[in-house]
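Below is how a single chain appears once it has passed through the pipeline. First comes the sequence as given, then the structure the pipeline wrote out for it. We keep one example in the README because the format questions we get most often are answered faster by looking than by reading.
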Amino acid sequence: MPDENIATVESLYQAFTRANLPQLLAALSEDVVWTQPGSTRLSKAHRGRDAVVGFFLDIAQYGLTVRPIEYFSRDEKVLVVVDVELAGD
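Resulting structure:
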């Protein structure tokens, strides 16, 4: 199951990179929880499909580039270490 969960999360990052909203929606369960760490207004647990997709759309407007570096899995949880870049002047 962990490899399967990692594959699912990896496909989400790929769909986000390609702005493939239908693929994102298809991969998310109704009770998905996406936790964004940090101390910004976006840093929280986003609960439910609509909240997670809203989060993706919200961060996309900032010219965000996210490159997954490494995936970890335990039971049903997946942790992804990412490199994040924001568009700037």
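The mean pLDDT is 86.

See the next section for the split statistics.
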